[in-house]
């Protein structure tokens, strides 16, 4: 069976004055034969209007578009006592409001950052409370114990609040907050287990290290009351 290439095919009329757009390309009106609104044309119109929002010398000019930078979001912050606003990253703004967020595995580098932040906030004003929000899986034993010891040594009260989950040693930090200021969201999950970590040396040294870690955690957790076993 052969088909003639010169066969007369139905061609829709292109005399319509309405230009229909799909993205940035002009499409045939036959594509939109269902009668539905042309969302692509509406989207193109909004983008075109936002890009060319100004007029200079009777010609449209490209307007300025403010976009969020890639990476840590920046927020406007005004230092107390000053009238000017400045753009700072989100974590810096939270630190200035005495809010510390633990949302990752606790290692030595992250622990040192949290320690330095708490010590600085305590030196600025030791009468205000430091708020620690926890949503993490825990971390290494020694860095976590360093954070806990710093929390207990500060003059500033430290309140802890769980948002999401606090597993392993993150739950231990949650329990180390000020009495009466330890809380958790209704759907959060908290789980404590025996400390685990890597160590090298002779068997006698490893045994004494394990006994020391368990005794430290046991002494700190045992005075806490109203702990519910899940």
From TrEMBL:
Pfam families from the UniProt entry: CLP_protease (PF00574)
Signal peptide, first to last residue: none
GO CC annotation: endopeptidase Clp complex; plastid stroma
GO molecular function: ATP-dependent peptidase activity; ATPase binding; serine-type endopeptidase activity
Domain of life (superkingdom): Eukaryota
UniProt-listed InterPro entries: ClpP, ClpP/crotonase-like_dom_sf, ClpP/TepA
Gene Ontology process terms (BP): protein quality control for misfolded or incompletely synthesized proteins
CDD domains: S14_ClpP_2 (cd07017)
Family: Belongs to the peptidase S14 family.
PANTHER family xref list: ATP-DEPENDENT CLP PROTEASE PROTEOLYTIC SUBUNIT, ATP-DEPENDENT CLP PROTEASE PROTEOLYTIC SUBUNIT-RELATED PROTEIN 2, CHLOROPLASTIC
UniProt name for this protein: ATP-dependent Clp protease proteolytic subunit
Lineage: Eukaryota, Viridiplantae, Streptophyta, Embryophyta, Tracheophyta
